[in-house]
Design a protein that fits this description.
The chain folds into 2 domains: 1-74, no CATH class; 77-118, no CATH class. The N and C termini lie far apart (97 Å). It contains 5 helices and no strands. By secondary structure, it is mostly helical.
C-alpha cells in the first residue's frame, strides 16, 4: 500500500470511529440486535444444507451404483430416428409427400370417426 492509501484509510477509520462514538445507547443497542439477527440468518442456510448433505450423498451413491451395474451395453437405444430417416430416404417417400394433403385429410377423418365408408 502506498503512503497516500494508508493516510486515506486512517482518515476514513478515524471518521467512522468518531461517528460511532457520537451514537446514543439506544441506537447502538438497535444496531447490535440487527447485527446479531443478520448473523443468525446468515448461519441458517448452512445448517439446512448440512442437514440434507448425507441424503444427497446416499442418493448420488445409489445412482452411480445403478449406472455401474447396468453397464454401457445394457442401455436401450431408441431406433425411431433411424427408422424415420429410412422412410424419408426411400423412393416411396417421394410419392407419399406428393399426396401429403390426402394423408392429412385421411388422418383427420379417422380421428373424427367419419372414416366409415361402408
Amino acid at each position: 500500500m502506498s503512503k497516500t492509501d494508508e493516510q486515506l484509510t486512517r482518515k476514513a477509520k478515524d471518521a467512522f470511529d468518531a461517528s460511532v462514538d457520537s451514537l446514543d445507547a439506544a441506537t447502538l443497542s438497535r444496531l447490535n440486535r440487527g447485527r446479531q439477527a443478520a448473523l443468525a440468518e446468515a448461519a441458517r442456510p448452512i445448517t439446512q444444507w448440512l442437514r440434507w448433505m448425507p441424503v444427497t450423498g446416499i442418493a448420488a451413491a445409489v445412482l452411480m451404483a445403478v449406472i455401474m451395474l447396468r453397464g454401457p451395453g445394457d442401455i436401450d437405444v431408441i431406433s425411431a430416428p433411424a427408422t424415420d430417416l429410412e422412410i424419408l430416404l426411400s423412393e416411396e417417400s417421394i410419392e407419399m409427400l406428393e399426396d401429403l394433403e390426402f394423408y392429412s385429410w385421411l388422418a383427420t377423418q379417422e380421428l373424427d370417426g367419419a372414416g366409415d365408408f361402408g
